[in-house]
Amino acid sequence: MTTPPVSRLRAARLLTHTLVAALALVIAVPVAWVLFASVKRKSEFFGSPWTLPEGPHLQNYLDAFVTARMGQYFLTSAFVTVLGLVFVLAVSVPAAYVIARYEFRGRRAVELALLAGLFVNVNYIVVPIFLMLVDWDRSLIDVFPGGFFIDNPAVLSLVYAATSIPFTIYLLTAYFRSIPVEYEEAAALDGASRFRIMTRIMLPMARPAVTTVILFNFLAYWNDFIISLTLLPGDNKTLQVGLLNLFTAQKAAADYGRLYAGMVIVIVPVLILYAIVQRRLIEGIASGGVKG
Questions:
Q1: What is the rounded CA–CA span in Å between residue 164 and residue 122?
Q2: 172: how many CB neighbours lie within 10 A of its CB?
Q3: pLDDT tens-digit profile of 183-215?
Q4: Could you count the other beta carbons within 10 Å of the beta carbon of residue 141?
Q5: pLDDT value at residue 287
Q6: Separation CA 104–CA 178 (nearest Å)
Q7: Residue 72, CA distances (Å) to 15, 86, 172, 218 in order
Q8: Which candidate, 253, 268, 272, places its Cα nearest to that of 68?
Q9: Which of 239, 86, 241 is nearest to 158 (CA)?
Q10: What is the radius of gyration, based on Cα positions, of the chain?
Q11: In the 8-state DSSP scheme, what is residue 202?
Q12: Under a CB-based contact definition with an 8 Å cutoff, are residues 156 and 194 in contact?
């Protein structure tokens, strides 16, 4: 088998670097534009959209947090997202470990059911979920006259977790199966229980896969619009629904600085989380998603 010439390898590497740089530029330019626009005064938007701001007009962020209630919506989104992650990990980690390591009757049927759940788009079943929760509220109207399941952020977190369990278990199961069983056998010889083996041996070794599912589920919960709009119809909205309201209000008022400040409030947590877990995310995709 002949080795490709050095010049061809260099050309391929140069082409790859060029494509990656172009893709990074396509992503970075809109993000940078929104950041700069969020600190512009209202009068600066009537000139060229590419001019840099005359100075940091941080009043846009104060108006977005307080006047437009984006601060309240931010706290609601943070609560819903974190609680949803706690729910999904509390169920998915033990379930994935059992499916990966235990032989029991019906395991194949459980795996097939989880695989089928991967193809269910939750946006298509949000109306049945809403109607089911409304019926539950009606049955509990004597206990909770104001309702319990609708307009409850904790219930929204539970819905998020329930709909993301198939994907989470699928990825974690694949990663657990890639870990050699000798580690568990050695721990069992030392007298460790099954629960201790899962929490002290398997879970730390599966940290790249856990990081991957945390990031993917965080993005799904944080960026969700349809489910939160349907299940939280009151004033306690999530950040994405609040951003839509802000967009509608500021489009009529032509106060675009406050609108772009709201966009930054939505974007920054995602960028921070990705910067923190970037390395482990790549490890999780390379190992957990390929091995099985």
A1: 9
A2: 28
A3: 888 988 888 888 898 988 899 888 888 988 999
A4: 11
A5: 53
A6: 20
A7: 46, 21, 34, 19
A8: 253
A9: 86
A10: 24
A11: I
A12: no
Q: Which class for 68: exposed (0-12), middle (13-18), buried (19 or more C-beta within 10 A)?
A: buried
- Write the pLDDT tens digit of every residue in 75-97: 999 999 999 999 999 999 999 99
Note whether 53 and 70 are within 8 A (CB): no
As a whole number of angstroms, the longest Cα–Cα distance in the chain is 80
Q: What is the pTM of this model?
A: 0.86
Q: What is the pLDDT of residues 8-30, one digit of tens each?
A: 888 888 898 899 899 889 988 88
Contacts of 119 by beta carbon, 8 Å cutoff, 6+ apart: none
CATH, domain 57-288, list 2.40.50.100, 1.10.8.60, 1.10.3720.10, 1.10.4200.10: 1.10.3720.10
Instruction: Report which residue type is found at 156.
Output: L
Alpha helices in the chain (DSSP H): 6-37, 59-62, 70-101, 107-117, 126-139, 153-178, 182-189, 194-197, 203-205, 207-222, 226-231, 239-253, 256-288
| pLDDT tens digit sequence for 134-151 | 999 999 888 888 889 999
Residues 6+ apart with CB under 8 A from 153: 76, 79, 80, 83, 232, 236
